[in-house]
Amino acid sequence: MSKVRTRFAPSPTGYMHIGNLRTALYAYLVAKKYNGDFILRIEDTDQNRLVEGATDIIYDTLKACDLQHDEGPDVGGDYGPYVQSERMKAGIYKDYALRLVKSGNAHYCFCKEEDIEAQKKNAGPDGDSFLYKDPCKNLAEDEIRKKLDNNEEYVIRQTIVPEGTTTFTDEVYGDITVNNDELDEMILLKSDGFPTYNFANVVDDHLMEITDVVRGKEYLSSTPKYNLLYEAFGWDIPRYIHCPPVMKNEHEKLSKRNGDASFQDLVAKGYLPEAILNYIALLGWSPNEEREIYSVEELTKVFDVKRINKSGAIFDIEKLKWMNGVYLRNMDDDSYFKLLEPEIAKYVDPKYDYRAIAKALKDRVMILSDVEEMVDFFNEPKDYSIDLYNNKKAKTDPETARKCLELALPALNNIEEWNNDTIFSCLASIAADNSMKNITLMYPVQVALSGKDRTPGGATMIAQILGKDETIKRLEKALEKFE
RNA sequence: GGCCUGUUGGUGAAACGGUUAACACAUUGCCCUCUCAAGGCAACAUUCACGGGUUCGAAUCCCGUACAGGUCACCA
Question: Is the CB of A137 under 7 A from strand B?
């Protein structure tokens, strides 16, 4: 068996969609599972849709995801160039298109767009299909010559004999057969000399010796036409792996146009690339065991094309959040702190112990953007109403809370060595002395220190981080509120 | 409209003719607990879009219907 080679072939038209990224992931996994090569090819044949900087986004994304390509425009390789516009300049596509014309599998077409529109419009209502019946198909040789000499605009269009059937096998969808008379004769070479995606894809996949074509399901319908091209050239047909779409909801695919989350949006919100990758791997594919947390490295071992689903999967941000939390919790302390420190620094005065804060956040943060809301009381307690002291679980109301604070203040003030243990035992013994549950005493302290009914860590932890002076100050201030 | 593909709980999904229809997220409840989390435990589809058929037996095979998605671009 020859070496497996897969490719990711995006067009540089903007940001990286999640669906796109998943396709890249699968292509990568297929290659790496068999120690094959993963190739990046830039498909920039539509000069109108190019977006500046889009290629860099592609590089950045693959890099951030650690989906390293073995060949590509930036890293080179033996099958270059890896950018289609450059390949076009080398005349590759026109050469091959002309070969098809010569062999009768393609023809010059001089039709105007409005003629095509008109014909399709008429074809519509009466049923049947919208297939374009190209009159240029039967143009005599000298007529073609004449038009060409006249510098008439032309395209090169695939020629399909409307007889018989074409069958292909998809690794996910199985065998699919279609009637050739239902196949559209697609344009191979555009009038600007660029190849269409359809054509460039076939030529490049062959020239680059791609063995497994991993792409979105939207290409399933045109695959028979590609195969006809392969056959016309006498080339081997690659294995096809069509992936079901990633959906935004029951009806719509995830798309950048609607402002749906792109990879970079998610990262900006504080999702980890590893978690994103792990999550999207599970959209449309499932492992053969009861496990969900996998690194890309681990995925290359367990990934199996046969277990890719056929129907679209809805992207569920809630589950991604959960998974991101798992990744955060699983990090070792140092890398975790390195990740959180800058986020904490945005909102918290450096006089406080960032490490202690980060530790308090560890089991609570799901995504980095949660941090702000969790640490917003350190610099200054939040504004609150004494109604906040009403708490069912703690069995407190403003009245009892006031008493608790009055008990706690002098006791805390007497602590000489300010640390977690001393603070806790101080508060706990007050509670015991007054036959209160810990929570009844500590909840008011927490509120007084933070102005919040839910905080990362309890009263003790907050007091410890704030330090004795600040704690006393805040307690005094809290008591004033009752007057 | 033609053609192609799909349809298991709110979501991701397992099951490859015989199970009480896994598991995970979410949700709810309980436990733990100085709040909130995290963690632990439990509940959550008498049913696999619907209708027929094959079979001793079907979510799994066949047919039909409905619904959904894709495709029919000088976009990829």
Answer: no
